[in-house]
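Hi,

Apologies if this is the wrong queue. I'm a grad student, and the batch job for NADH-ubiquinone oxidoreductase chain 2 from Lygodactylus sp. 3 aff. bivittis MV-2021 produced an output file that my downstream script rejects. I'm not sure whether the problem is my script or the file. Here is the sequence I used:
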Amino acid sequence: ALLYTISRTPATDMLTLGLISTLIGGWLGLNQTQVRKLLSFSSIAHMGWLMIALTLRPELATLTLMTYITLTTCMFLSFTLTTTKTLSDLGTTHSYYPMLTPLLMFSMMSLGGLPPLSGFMPKWLILNELVLKALPLLATTLALASLPSLYFYTRMTYISTLTIPPNTPLTEHKWRMKLHLPPSLMMMSTLAMMILPLTPTLSYTL
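Support response: The file is valid. Your script probably expects a header line. Output copied below for reference.
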């Protein structure tokens, strides 16, 4: 309801604020090592995309918000389960939750907006709407402004997956390793990775 209230703001102001929010959220998240701060600046960047979507088409803003809530819920459930607070804590995830490591990797890349994951869907639709409304310069600038966010999510993915030491058949994991993941986390992880094929349906039904 609050988003639809501010949708009466002039379009130029909304588009400018959305672009500035995307730039600030991306650049300020580059030097952070706390996961909580990274997700905060990521929220600022996604708020910029949401404001632009609200200016273009309110239904698209609803789809963007629903996708973002799904992705962040998946991330928060994962970090709560592994008690991750800093980037260095991500490197120990594999020792306790081996099954969670690939799910966490795809969820982070999806939140960064990497195709063909679910997080790419709202950005793709927003950029398409900007091009259709003869705003190619804003679309290009907005796409470039999302690169810093994609970079720090790629860095988180690198720390959580590619820094795992080489394993041999004799490698032992931590005692009392968690073999089963919560059903809610599994459901959110599936949605975070596989909504993209439903893009035409979601775009025209919301």
